[in-house]
Amino acid sequence: MRAGIAALVCGYLLSQFYRAFLAVLSPVLGTEFGASAADLASASGWWFLAFAAMQLPIGEGLDRFGPRRTAGWLMLVGAAGAALFAAATAVWQIKLAMALIGVGCAPVLMASYFIFARSFPPAAFGTLAGVMIGVGALGNVAASLPLSAAVDAFGWRDAVAGLAGFTALVALAILRLVRDPPRLPDQAKGSLLDLLRMPALWPVLAMMTVCYMPIAGLRGLWVGPYFSDVHGFYAGEIGQVGLWIGLAMVAGNFAYGPLDRLVGSRKWVIFSGNALTVLCLFGLWAQAGASPATAAGLLIAAGLFGASFPMVVAHGRAFIPPPLMGRGVTLLNLFGIAPVGIAQIVTGRIHAATPADPVSAPYAAVFLFFAITTAAGLAVYLMSQDRTD
């Protein structure tokens, strides 16, 4: 089982990498293809929307076929998408490649959560989920300074082609090493409607909608154009900022993991962390034209406090019956990922529609969008029922 989980961790490292690497590639893609910030926001959105669209089929696949085949075969689709990205000659091909990569990355985290929920004690789920995301978030780190160094050394096409090959190897490792948990007698029974009939899940789904959206959107794309346009940073400097944000996200994921057991509450751990994230986002809006050190500090703090995703999943998982576990965790993930894709497209349009006078104004509008939407989700989450295992 350990070898299989290690293979899934590698898959999740790639998932975190691919959702963030456009921030570093944005200058070179702008030069080579004339891709605007709105184009790249749309490409990022395609990744998240394709990822989200696969969640419900993946839930069925986990419950009916198990995590090995569900994750392994789809990861091969992601490898094909990375190969297309490396060979792309137009912006539309970049968008299609991002969608295919999103399909490939879609099952790996939920396959891991399915195994944790079915093969480990319930009280350990939050910690295991946090460790999985914490280790996987190193892929986010790799999509910063290490990627910019690889692009400088080998060129962006060869760097992405190498990633395509590595993605294919990880897919084969998942197919070879992952062991499916034993099936339950009534595992195929029930439906998503049974889950949606549970009012206790609704406020948690509202929190899922906003808990990952701001930091995924900012780290995944907007950090690059913002520091390039407003502060004149080049790719290496953007990579350094992304590195520190990624490290903060790693630290946050590990910190959130055991907090529910230490504090005796999931709801208030989640609420407090996301309230601090909202403050950081409003700070970015108010200080969008301030010094780069101020902006970087607020983004790093948002990365730390905004890493509550695994804890929110753990909160929702506590209400899900075992026969619906695959569909339940993928439903939660759908609400966590789909809004990021929508937000990337919306913020791209907000950015394009906002006059660049001063040059920081379009980015201030993006920061304000994330601040308001996160605050709204947090207000709904106040009505949630606390539950720990």
Provide structural commentary.
The protein has 389 residues and is mostly helical. The protein has one domain (2-179, 193-381): Up-down Bundle (Growth Hormone, Chain: A). It has 20 helices and no strands. Helix 3 packs parallel to helix 6, helix 4 packs antiparallel against helix 5 (67-87) and helix 15 runs parallel beside helix 17 (292-305). The two termini are 23 Å apart. The relative contact order is 0.17.
Structural class: mainly alpha
**What is the rounded Rg?**
20 Å
Point out poorly predicted stretches.
none
CATH homologous superfamily (4th level) name: MFS general substrate transporter like domains
Number of helices: 20
- Mean pLDDT over all positions: 88
The total strand number stands at 0
**How many angstroms does the end-to-end distance come to?**
23 Å
Largest sheet: none
| Inertia-based shape | globular
H/E series, N to C? HHHHHHHHHHHHHHHHHHHH
| Helix content bin | over 70%
**Strand proportion:** under 5%
CATH class: Mainly Alpha
The third-level CATH topology is Growth Hormone, Chain: A
Can you name the CATH architecture? Answer: Up-down Bundle
Q: Can you give me a brief rundown of this structure?
A:
By secondary structure, this protein is mostly helical. The protein has 20 helices and no strands.
Features:
single chain; mainly alpha; Growth Hormone, Chain: A; 80% helix
Write the layout of secondary structure elements.
Elements: H1 2-20, H2 22-33, H3 37-53, H4 55-65, H5 67-87, H6 91-105, H7 108-119, H8 125-136, H9 138-142, H10 145-154, H11 156-177, H12 192-196, H13 201-211, H14 213-231, H15 235-263, H16 267-286, H17 292-305, H18 309-317, H19 325-353, H20 361-381
